[in-house]
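Structure ticket #2291
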Amino acid sequence: MSKMDNNFSKAFDALLEEKQLPKEVILEAIEAAMASAYRRAVNASSAQEVVGKIDLETGDVTILAEKEVVEDVQDERTETTLEDAREVDPDVELGGMALVDSTPANFGRVAAQTARQVIQQRIREAERSVQAEHFEQQIGEIISGVIQASGGRRGVTVGLDMKAEGTIPHNQKIPGERFRVHDRIRCVVLEVKDTPRGPQIILSRGHGSFLRRLLENEVPEIYHGVVEIRGIAREPGRRAKVAVSAEQEGIDPVGACVGIRGVRIQNIVRELHNEKIDIIEWNPDQIAYITKAISPARVSGVYLSEPTDSARTATVVVTEDQLSLAIGRNGQNARLAAKLTGWRIDIKSLLEATTDSLSTLQNDAELAKIMPKAVEEAPIIEAMLEKKAEGRSLSPEDYQTMGVFMDRVERRTIEVQEEADRVEQERITEIRKKIAPIAFEMELAETDIKEHIFNILFEAEYETVGELMLALELDADKVFDLPGIGPKAIENITEVLGGMDFPEVEIEEVDEEEAETEAEVEVEVEADVEEKVETKEEPEEKVDEEAKKAAEAKAKAEAEKAKAEKAAQEEAERIKQEKAKELAEEKRIAEIRSNVSLAAFDMELKDTDLTERVQSMLKGAGYTNVGDLMVSLQTDPGRVFDLPGFGMKAIENLTEVLSVLSFPEEEELTEEEKLEAEEKKKQKSRSVKYVFDPELGEVVAEKQHKREEDDWEDIDWKDAL
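Resolution: structure written out below.
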C-alpha cells in the first residue's frame, strides 16, 4: 500500500460540498478510477478482476487483483505464490484464483495523475443521474430559477438548483411575455428527457398544471383539500376557466379562490401576464354546469343531446344581445367552455333557435301529432319571425312567447330522439344476439370476399364478418349503396356470407331445455338426499364445496375474459378513431393546399408589401413564401396571429397585403370553361355555411348536399377554412 496526501480527508469533504453529491457516489467513482489506473499502469487484461479500495481516514489506496495460484511465478500481473494467496484466503489451493494485494509502489501519485480524467467523467455522470432523479420527482410541481438566456431557437434557458439548466420552449411560454437575463421566474416541470449530454428539463408557464399549482399555493382551501379543482381550460396569456367545488358544507369555493376584494386571484393574474381567469362552481347537473361555463353571458336555455354514434352536443340559446359575449372574441369563450365541460357546444340566438324549432315542427309529422298546442301557436310564432325579419321591433312579451315555444319544442324533440335511440339500441341488441359470437372475431380479410370489395367494406369500417352481418340486418341498403358496390359485388357478399356455417343461437329454446333438464336433476338429487336421510338418519347432505369453487372460478374467468375483450375492443376503437382523425386532417390540409395557386409558393415574403417587422416575425416562425403562409392561415390562423409580438397592426398589414395579391392562372381556360368554373364556384358557395367547432377549436364549413329540387340536408364536412 502507498500513503496519499495527509489532507486527503479534507479534500474529499470539499469535493462532496462542491458537487453536492452523496458520499457513496463520489467514493465509488474514485475507487473505479483507481482500478482503471492500475489496468493502464500494468496493462492488465480486461478479463482480470481488479478492485480499488480507499481508506477515507488515512487516504491509503489498495488495489486487489485476481491472480492464479502457482508454484513458480512467471508473470506477476496474473500469477501469485501459494504463500501470498493464503494471506488473503487460507483455504486456497494451487491452481485456484485469489484476490491479492497488487498495489504498485508510489501508486497514489501515479493514480492521481492517471485517474483524474476518469474521476471527473464518473462524477459528471453521477451529477447527471442525481439531477435527473431529483427533477423527475418534481414533474408537475412549481420550481423557481434564474433566466440565463432568452430568445434563442431553443426558447428560454433557466438556471435551476443543483447547477442544472431547464428550457422553456416557445410553445410553453405565455404569449407576449418578455424575459431579461438574471430575472427570477417560476414555472412547472413538464418533462425530464435523458440525453447523452445529461438530463433535458422541459419547463412550462403555459400548461394548465402551472395554473393548478399557482391556485394550490395561493388558496389554502385548495391546498388542504377543502376546495377541489374539477377542471381547467386555458389559453395562455388570454383567458382561462377553472371549475371548483367545495368538499365541506358552508364553504364558498368561488369566493375562496377569488379572495377578499379579489386579492388571491389578482396575484395569480399578475403572475400569468394579466391572463383573465373565470372561476366557476362545478355542478353535477350538466345543464347548470354548462350554463355557468358560458359565463359571463346570460343563458336562456341549454338542451343536451347524447347520440350513441357521435359526440355529445349541448345547444345553448341566448338572447341577441348576449350572442357575441357567449361566443367570445374569435370564439374563445365557447371554445374554453367546451374544453372545460367536455361537451360540443352549439350557440344559437333566440331568433335562430325559434326558427329551427318552428321548422322542425312543420317538417316532422310525428312530432306535430304529439304537440297539437304547439301546432296551434306556430302561425303566431311565424308572424313574429316575419315581423323581425322586416326590421320591426318585438316586444318583451313576444320574446317571452318565442322562448316558451322554442323550449317546449326543443325538449320534446330531445325526448323523442332519446326514445328513438333507445328503441334502435334494443333492436341492435336483439339482432346481435342472433349472430354467432365467433362471427365478430372473424376478419373479413380471412373470407373469400373479393379484394376490391373488401377494400370498399374496410374503408366503410366493416372489419369483421359479424359487423357486416349486423349492418346488413339493420339496413342492407346502407351497405349495398356504398360507392363501388354493384350487382356482382352484392352477389359475392351474399354468396360468401350465405356459405358460412355458424352455430345457430336459439337462446329461448336452449334456456327452456336447460331449465327442464336442471329441474329433473334437482328432483332426482332431492329424492336421493331424502332417501339417505330416511335410511341413515344422518344430518342434511353437505354442499359439494369443490363443485362450488369450480363454478365460481369458471364464472370469474369468464368475467375477466369478457372484461379483457371489452378493453381490447375499446382500445382498437380508440386507435381507429385516432387514425381516422389523422387521415381527415391530412386530407383537409391537402385540400386547402390544392386550392392555393402554385404561383403563391414561388413568391417570397420579401417580394410583398409586408413590413420588415412582420416579415422578420414570420421568417422566425419558418414562413418563407406566400403559399405556405396562406395554407397556415386557412388551416389554423392562431399559429400565425398568436406569434410573439404579432399585434393588431401586424394582423392588419398581413390581411391587407394578402387581400390584394393576385396570381396568374395556372393554365389558359376557354370562355366556356371559365363560365362553368364560375358556376361551380357559386354552387359550392351556396352549399356551404361556416360555424365554429369547439372540438377542433376553429371555424369549419358544413357542406349541404342537394337531393332534390328543394330538399337540402346538412351533413358534417371536416374540411376547415
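Closing remark: DSSP finds 27 helices and 18 strands in the chain.
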